[in-house]
Amino acid sequence: MKILFVCMGNICRSPSAEGFFRFHASREGLLETLHLDSAGTHDYHVGHPPDARAIAAMTGRGADISGLRARRVRPEDFHDFDLVVAMDDNNHDQLERLAAAAGKARRARLVRMMSYAPQHGVREVPDPYYGDERDFELMCDLLDDATRGLLDEVRAALGQETGDGRNSPR
Fold it and tell me: Which residues of the chain, if any, have pLDDT below 70?
């Protein structure tokens, strides 16, 4: 299964989502069955590492994203990936337009990240870029829970069981 996480610049939210998903999938022995990536809808930071504040917040939670580099999402991503995960409504709308450009043969399903963590009662992962440490911690809290929810869905799609021996509920 191939999953692409997308935010605006690909230096805060989407690399953090990729990092959390890698971390959780690795702990469950599923990483080798997945292809994960992240991208931005804009080209502001192409080739750059994640924001230092995102790296620090993720490192504090046990996930290293320092080796990731920003790239811009491409129309062909909708052919190459099974799932494209948007961090907010603005990026979701831009991705819908890119998906239309990809044509009818596309295979990717477009979803919102926070649909996997409805317990938070929010629709979007707020962009912490212009914020402070608290904003990055909130981003991490939301993404940690949402990536766990997404992992439940992926596990079910792969026919895997949860840690308690049951099939995943999603």
Answer: 161-170
